[in-house]
Design brief:
Helix content: under 10%
Number of strands: 51
Largest sheet: 26 strands, antiparallel, barrel
Number of helices: 6
Shape: elongated
Radius of gyration: 41 Å
Distance between the termini: 32 Å
Structural class: mainly beta
Amino acid sequence: MQFNLHRSQKLSLAIITAILASTQTFTAAGSSWDCLQVAGQWDCSATSNTPETDPLEAITASGIEPPLTLSNTVTNTQLVEPPTELITTPTKSVEPQPNPSNTVAKAPLVEPPKEQVTTATSQVEPQLNSSNTVANAQLVQPPAELIATPIPSISNPRPEVAVSKASTATVPQDEIINQTAAKKTAPSNRAITLKDKPAPDPKDLDWYTYTQDENHYGVCQGRYISPTIGAFTEGEAEPLDLSTVFITADQSSTALGQNSVLTGNVDIRQGTKSLNSPVVKLNQETGAMDLEGGVTYRQTGLLIVADNAKGNINNDQTSLYNAQYVVHDIGLRGEAEAIISQTTDIIDIQNGSLTFCPPNVEDWKISASNINLDLATGFGKADDAKLVLMGQTVLYLPFLYFPLDDRRHSGFLYPSFKFANDGNEVAIPYYFNIATNMDDTLTTTVNSDNGILLENELRYLDTNSVNKISTGLNVIDDQDARKRWVIGLNHKGNYSNFKTVIDYTKISDDDYFDDFGSNLDVDEGDNNHLNQTAKISYAGDNWNSSLLLQKYQTIDSDTTTPYQRLPEIRFSGITPEPWDNINIKYRTVFTRFDRDQTGLSDAEKVNGDRLIIQPSINASYRKAWGYIQPSVKLWHASYNLNDQLDGVGSNQSVTVPILEIDSGLYFDRDFSFQEKGYTQTLEPRLYGLYVPYSDQSELPDFDTSELTFNYNSLFRDNRFSGDDRFGDTKQISLGLTTRVISDQGRELVTASLGHALYFADRKVRVDSNAAPIDDDTSDLATSIIWRPNTRVRALIDATFDAKTFDNSEFTLDLKYEEDPSHVIGFRHRFTRDIREQTTLSYLWPISNNWSGLGLVQYDWLSNKTIDVAGGLEYQSCCWLTRMVVRNELDSNNSRDISFAFQFVLKGLGGAGRSPNQDLRDKIKGYDKREYYNANN
């Protein structure tokens, strides 16, 4: 335990205890305060001329400044009287024979009175002179809140300062030590040794198990709870200066000029630190102290329990031997032959170990000749380290650096492994903590087929932006002389009203991701195109504008390159204040489209400029029982084109008026079911849309496609995405929605059914050669969301032919989640003549520590399994292992079989390739469970 030097009140009570708090003869040597220090020894045989005075009166009285000096200690230090609860009742006057030799054996027994005197003291000024002691030290009165009833003037009382519940029997020191050690029973003082020590009670290490009321689902059955040392709650007195030291004990004895011995539950406190031991020996001259018979050291967030300890009240170092320690906040514990505490935040451990496992669990630990834990920086270092798993040494490291919390540090991260039929690989990352707002990760990947790959990811954060630069380089490949690389740039900025976005990825060749994959945060071209976008936007009070540059790199030679936007300028807004529920909106978009024309022909080669102008006037009238929203819009498109087909002009334009009206009613009723109350709503909706036909057959197709039909399509003004087409229609859409809401406000069921009636053929198509759509009615569109309880959620979107009721499209998404560890997901998607796939995934515990995970994705049209994976996980409070086997159908219609393995020592990180990277999008609840387990 360290005691830092301060300008005032330094170790005041410790010094008072060493000099005054004793049961020896000099404390009651006569009718006056007669003890003097002569030639470095105390002599209580001399008689002074001072009046008979209680020394406690001299301490508590105001205006007393006796000169006192003690050798080799702090100058100008104020000695403060302890709180009254630390001052025992004074004794009756006793006249023993002086003991010139200052031995303990001849000291008489002094019995204190049982009653406590409560009258006021008188003011006395004793003169104390001695040599080689603290210069100009002052004895001052403690704060008023620490003084209870004053003590009366009694001749020759026994002064007991900073020692509570003190026995007045004077016995030899050795006998006191032996008796106290024999009676020691407190768990916090129990001796703990490294060899053959008994298993500790977890509560002795501040470990408390969760109760059933806490509903804890994690694998850890308990947690460490640190008591607060030296805290003051609201309304209590302010704490003393942190330099003040308080010492209490059941008994004390002092041999003049030698050691003071405090016995029986000795407690030493300074600020937020405390030491507790049954026996404390304190050297009056040097300040050295020995703690024996079991030692407990505490500061908020740290506990050390040891057999014995040595230290000095005049410096900042304390050594504890045969110790166990706990760092509560991070769940770290360990044991050591010796622990040297030099400062509040640095712990040096000699011949010890550390682990994040709970008490009495030794599944893994790191043993080392020396371990340094820096709690201030959150980093640890071990020399001659050994990783011990299940009692067996599996790895030796000359030195090991490791984090103690979530703060960042430079150093190697844990490697990852992959075993697959397309090559095995091991990746070793190194992390550079450059600054608080900048870091870099360099990963070296060795692949059995593709040589060595270097991947680097630099991250930079400032007050306005988040930035990331990702690069990859294949430096050694005996089978391929090409220079193969990837570069990615991600940026998001927020500068007051301005916002900026950059998303850029480029690779050296089309096969890069197929051969190497990537651990970088870049676009891997799932749609065969790599996005290369930069955008800046400005938001005004009632308007917005933006400038976009967008290119693509196509990585599939069989796929047509999409158009590039170089640039696209948007401007939109709304009138500041609506007039009588009427507002005006406007939208303008100018875009220049271009693309590589290699291999293209006819209409595919067309490029040029497009201008879209779309104003609208909208009204809204709402009541509690319903609403009506009419709108009048105008859509105008103008083109300036290049490489048009023969006979088609370069300048094209079209203007389309749109008239729509949307309305709805609200009905509700209350009902009960199984003695529970519910509310059901009925919400009919009527939507009318009129868009006259305008010939758009000569317009190019830069970014337009026909949207998939579903329930929301019934109430949309355009059946196309993009701005190259606006669909003609004369239709009325009918919709009906009902909801069931519990008394708690939870929506249990939402079901909708809709249908559209068409009064004219729809002639506008993306392909001008396609036939018009002549159906008089749309398909029946349904949407159902069912939440019967907090565990089950079902979503159904389906469309049916209005005449035959044949299913046109169907999506079922079902999820069961009892808690983050019990999750089952089912998804089935069907589009007539296009797609029919089913995906089943699960996360489910097998026992308290074992759990299974997996997925199956099957294509019913090709009768092939697209993806299948299965795995097992074992997880305890201090480690986990995860093994997953996967068989996936790749883009070349061949099978890719891989094995992923991960091993994690909780608190230190993990080794292995996490299946989370590949499966998180397909296994429902995977990310949520990983987050829950990492934070519980």
